[in-house]
Amino acid sequence: MKYLTFANPDDLRNPCLGVLLGEKVVDLAELRTWAQGVRAIPAEHLPESLIALIYAGPSTWDYVRKLISALEDEDPVHLKGSKRKPVGYHINQVVLFPPLPNPESLRDFSAFETHTKNVFTNRGKEIPPEWYQFPVFYFSNPHSIFGTGSVIPYPHETQALDYELEVACVIGKTGMDIRSDEATNHIFGFTIFNDWSARDIQKREMRVGLGPAKGKDFASSLGPWIVTPDELLDKVTDRPGVYDLTMIARINGEERTRGNWKDIHYSFGEMIARASQGVYLVPGEVLGSGTVGNGSLLELTKGEGPWLNSGDIVELEIERLGVLSNQIGALPTKS
């Protein structure tokens, strides 16, 4: 299943919960009305938001699958729900929001060895041995989330704006001290994650031994949708939460990064195990993988730039997960 949050063309202010089928977006609320009337499927509780759907649990997820199966070979664009509202739209007709506009939390790991090695090499250092002992992460800002198509505000006081090509998992089941070999049972789905970075700010604040903070918290992009693990079964590897999927970044249409999820050093199973040590993980929390090797300008330019500019379009693509596209906004005016 590919879950998304969208606004239909007749009401662009109110987000709706939907599912992507090919190039069509299905409005689940309208599908429930149609399925009740045409297929005689009893109406059950259906949350209005994706975060509420995740909390509702497996019985509600099964109900959504039943509704989608009821479509059979029908085109949702031609069907009507309540008050003759369309059940579906072509994806070009709708506005996509972040699938989780306000996740419960946002942890970002550093799980790709190549990226870590590149960063430390640029500093004239070797990877510290602790990096190989456990997966490390920091907390980012869950309240500055952007979706595909959104303009990213150019942060103040930076001349070194960068992208980071990452994959993220969304927690779907509460747990504490989760074993890595059982962690996939706690994953609701996966999405693309752009951990935007102001490198000059990040560099200064981390000299004091804390951070990153203001070098990161101004923006994170998630989307375009959340893909449940059953969509990826033919790409699974022998490591929990790791898939053989190509990862690509483009700036203004030019490919800058190409990597693969399977090259990750720490699996999402290991990341979930680390994050849940002594604390509860709850539905709707997001865990980022960290940057794939060469998945940032910091690596590609050895920390010298050139960096992102106002007007640049950054596209992150992960096989099966879609394309997350954002344009960089105007430079901030000086006060």
Architecture overview:
The structure is a single chain. The chain is α+β, with helices and mostly antiparallel strands. The chain folds into 2 domains: 2-96, SH3 type barrels; 105-328, Fumarylacetoacetase-like, C-terminal domain (Fumarylacetoacetate hydrolase, domain 2). 18% of the residues lie in helices and 28% in strands. It is built from 7 helices and 21 strands. It has helices at residues 28-38, 50-56, 58-70, 113-122, 199-206, 268-275, 297-300; strands at 2-7, 16-21, 24-27, 88-90, 95-96, 105-109, 137-139, 145-146, 151-152, 161-162, 165-171, 175-176, 187-194, 197-198, 220-227, 246-251, 254-260, 280-281, 285-288, 313-318, 322-328. The strands form 4 sheets. Strands 1, 2, 3, 4, 5, 6, 7, 8, 11, 13, 15 and 19 form a 12-stranded mixed sheet that branches. The protein has a 5-stranded mixed sheet with strand order 9-21-20-16-17, with no helix packed on it. Strand 2 (16-21) and strand 3 form a beta hairpin. The longest helix is centred in the first third of the chain and has 13 residues, at 58-70.
Written as H for each helix and E for each strand, in order along the chain, the element string is EEEHHHEEEHEEEEEEEEHEEEHEEHEE
Separation, N- and C-terminal Cα atoms: 47 Å
**CATH architecture group name of the largest domain:** Alpha-Beta Complex
The whole-number mean of residue pLDDT values reads 96
